[in-house]
Amino acid sequence: MNDKAKAPAAGGSSRANTKKELPEHLKAYKHVWVLVELERGVVHPVSWELMNEGRKLADKLKVDLAAVVLGAPGGTDHVVTDAFCYGADVCYVVEHPALADYRNEPYTNVATELVNKFQPEILLLGATNLGRDLAGSVATTLLTGLTADCTELDVDAEGSLAATRPTFGGSLLCTIFTLNYRPQMATMRPRVAAMPVYQQGRTGRIIRHEVSLPEDDIITKILAFLPDSTSGKANLPYADIVVAGGLGMQNGDNYQLVKHLAAVLGAEWGGSRPLVQKGWIPSDRQIGQTGKTIRPRLYIAAGISGAIQHRVGVEGADLIVAINTDKNAPIFDFAHLGIVADATKILPALTETFRKRLAVTRSAAE
Ligand SMILES: Cc1cc2nc3c(=O)[nH]c(=O)nc-3n(C[C@H](O)[C@H](O)[C@H](O)COP(=O)(O)OP(=O)(O)OC[C@H]3O[C@@H](n4cnc5c(N)ncnc54)[C@H](O)[C@@H]3O)c2cc1C
After folding, report:
1. pTM (2 decimals)?
2. 3-state secondary structure (DSSP) of residue 57
């Protein structure tokens, strides 16, 4: 483990005495796989973000990047096309009626069967509800290591996966290796990695695999699908613009100024962790290490100090604008634009200015 700001150089000497020889039967494991999360016809974007990470690992290892697509018969073609365009060289496709909706048992059986047959050295999944559930059972079944919620993935000089994640309450980063087992498994949260470029017309090799999944052998049954009534509300990880407030907003009433600016900009709103603890905002609006990771084009942070636990959740933003009365606040170390001012005064002024400017732009467009 090491200081928060920087993960150890992959292949550092700290583990020199811990590495054992990989057992002979695991030496054949090759290639990097991303398990594509497909639910009700829609791919979770984290799967494509992982293709970006997977591509880098595969290029370093000089192996193929493969997408694993599981779904109902006839329901995967569009996913396979997209997987190639997002960088896959190979697609392993398993279609079966029992895979129409996610259930742990058939998905685990199929994923482990694929791994045992085709032997990937690295298997990546999104740290979503589905990915976390599946990764745990697949790793347990395969008796291999899994590093959850990684913030960085790399390969060391010996070709081992160096999976970095926060530890000790986020005050340290640790880099974890799975040296003696295969595949090396890791999950990564949405928006930690960037989306890859969509390369229209790119194709690759499709490997279809037949499985036997008698419905009678599966304990869990899907009786009905009830969509989450809150889905589509807070969508911080994928918002283009996010406005957030911190303790510098001073009270819940002042926090409303954050929401006003967000409404004018068509943005999502959120905040630092203490605001959740104070009950000013709900927990699904918390941004940071134990909240949401965001990657907007514009992030406006008002009255937020920029503690490391907040920083790790926002530093993927294209443009960070910080408003803080303290010119020495840590947020100015990583913000692109800083405004040293009272947020309770600046926010209404920004809201009014944007309201007028956007009204002019919209009426000109009509
Ligand atoms: C295990 C763990 C996990 C955590 N996870 C998270 C997480 O996910 N997200 C998160 O945010 N935090 C998290 N934290 C908490 C984190 O360490 C900080 O305590 C927190 O981010 C601070 O919130 P803040 O910036 O709103 O408040 P403060 O640190 O108190 O900062 C308030 C800032 O507002 C400024 N200010 C004051 N008045 C004004 C004004 N009128 N106008 C403008 N600026 C003003 C001050 O100068 C100050 O910089 C975590 C902590 C731990 C231990």
Report:
1. 0.75
2. helix
- Over residues 39-55, the pLDDT tens digits come to 988 899 899 999 999 99
In the predicted model, is pLDDT for residue 21 greater than 80? no
Q: Does the CB atom of residue 310 touch ligand 1 within 6 A?
A: yes
Contacts of 35 (CB under 8 A, 6+ apart): 47, 68, 70, 111, 123, 124, 125, 131, 134
Ligand 1: which of 149, 273, 287, 312 to mutate, judged by most atoms within 8 Å of the beta carbon? 273
Alpha-carbon gap, residue 37 to 344, rounded angstroms: 42
Say what the pLDDT of residue 15 is: 54
DSSP helix/strand/coil, 12: coil
What is the rounded average pLDDT of the residues 252-261? 94
pLDDT class of 351 with cuts at 50, 70, 90 = very high
Q: Whose CA is nearest to atom 4 of ligand 1?
A: 309
> Higher pLDDT residue, 158 or 62?
62
Confidence of residue 343 (pLDDT cuts 50, 70, 90): very high
Residue nearest to atom 31 of ligand 1 (CA): 305
Residue of the nearest CA to atom 9 in ligand 1?
Answer: 288
Span from the CA of 291 to the centroid of ligand 1 (angstroms): 13
DSSP per position, 125-182:
EESSHHHHHHHHHHHHHHT--EEEEESEEEE-TTS-EEEEEEEGGGTEEEEE---SSS
Q: Which two tokens stand for residue 148?
A: 């959850």
Q: Which one of 269, 283, 309 would you pick to mutate in the ligand 1 pocket, going by the greatest count of ligand atoms within 8 A of its CB? A: 309
Residues 6+ apart with CB under 8 A from 358: 264, 265
Q: Is 69 in the pocket of ligand 1 (CB under 6 A)?
A: no
